[in-house]
Amino acid sequence: MSNRFRNIFLWFGIIAVIVMLCTFDVSYQEILDNLRRAGYYLPLVLILWLFIYLINTASWWIILRSGGDVKTLSFAKLFKFTVSGFAINYVTPVGLMGGEPYRIMELKPYVGVERATSSVVLYVMMHIFSHFVFWLSAVGLYVCLYRVSWEMGVVLGLITVLCLFLTFVFIKGYKHGMAVACLNIASHIPFLKKHAVRFLDKNKEKLENIDNQIALLHSQKKRTFYGSLSLEYIARIVGCLEIWLILNVLTTDVSFMNCVLVVAFSSLLANILFFLPMQLGGREGGFALAVAGLSLSGAFGVYAALLTRVRELFWIIVGLVLVKFGNKKNDKERAS
User: Fold this and answer.
1) What is the pLDDT of residues 192-220, one digit of tens each?
2) Residue 178, SS3 per DSSP
3) What is the pTM assigned to this prediction?
4) Residue 334: CB partners within 8 Å, gap ≥ 6?
5) 255's torsion region: left (phi>0), alpha (psi -120 to 50) or beta?
């Protein structure tokens, strides 16, 4: 990728971080007090996410490797693209997809545009698909741990139906590809219609090749498919340790299973409000509702959401720094 595009991604992220820092709905003194209260648990949370990003990278790595040789691309470079891509996604409103063009552009010199695009699309699909599996698991876990009232039964039923429907859509996408289908849908949307039709006509052959590569993973490379999905699911379970560590600052009466439910239901609400950068407000509301639903103090949810925001800001800054870090060395290696 050229430095011009890297600078665009970098400055967009910097501006978004400044806006977020200026729009925190709590005072900076309150933030500092809560950070002191967290003590050594906060560094543990930050380190925990290093391992989560490594798992995410491994999931993308096995998808990429299933398509053939990756030449000079190392796991460390893919880790860099993973963290930076997630950082850009965090600060991108409307769909959380800003990091995907970045990943494709960084990966293109190593494996070509078609393979870079198909691997990124496949990884994003796997990342999203693991959400559905995680939410369905949480529904089953709640039924096993708690008595289900009829109101909660309706909510859990709606979540189950939604996840099963989306799972069906994604499985169909894995079988036939999604690139051409998405552009066909966009061709019927006002303001996008002309651009989508023009892009589809110009790049139809490349898009069909991308769809073929997506379908190939599901039909012939089952081990890679389920291996990548399993890693993404494991990353979500490991991520629940973050809430367990944070809530243990306040109480020792919270089990890890309860933390799984808190993360599942809060992430569900946050993803419904996908159009907000960092799901501002949705995450906090989700945490508060989730802990209240488990008969915990609503203050626990607010505290957990605040420290989660601090962790996100830390890794956003790390990711934005990595956008510019090590690129000259990478360029020399590709030229050699």
Assistant:
1) 667 667 777 777 777 777 777 777 776 66
2) coil
3) 0.81
4) 72, 109, 110
5) beta
- Measured between alpha carbons, how far is 49 from 52 in angstroms, rounded to an integer? 5
218-223: list long-range contacts, CB under 8 Å, 24+ apart: 218/171, 218/174, 218/175, 219/175, 221/66
Domains in the chain: boundaries: 3-127+222-335
Altogether, the residues listed in the chain come to a count of 336
**Cα Rg for the chain, rounded, in angstroms?**
21
Residue at token pair 């859990």: 156
The pair of three-digit structure tokens given for residue 251, joined into one six-digit string: 């109480």
* Contact status, residue 87 vs residue 99, Cβ threshold 8 Å: yes
Kindly report, residue by residue over 242-280, the tens digit of the pLDDT.
Answer: 988 887 776 667 788 888 888 888 788 777 655 444 444
CA distance 311 to 53: 13
Which tokens is 208 given?
Answer: 């069909």
Contact 239, 259 (CB under 8 A): no
DSSP string for residues in 130-166: HHHHHHHHHHHHHHHHS---HHHHHHHHHHHHHHHHH
Query: Which residue do the tokens 């990342």 mark?
Result: 127
* Residue 138: both structure tokens together: 């949480």
Residue 168 exposed, middle or buried by CB count within 10 Å (0-12, 13-18, 19+): exposed
- Dmax (CA) for the chain in angstroms is 65
Amino acid at 118: S
Orientation angle between helical segments 298-324 and 282-293, nearest 10 degrees: 140
Can you spell out the DSSP letters for 237-251? HHHHHHHHHHHTTT-
Per-residue burial over 228-256, b if 16 or more Cβ lie within 10 Å, else e, is: bbebbbebbeebbbbbbbbbebbeeebee
Residue 276 and residue 285: Cα distance in Å, rounded?
13
Helix, strand or coil, per DSSP, at residue 26: coil
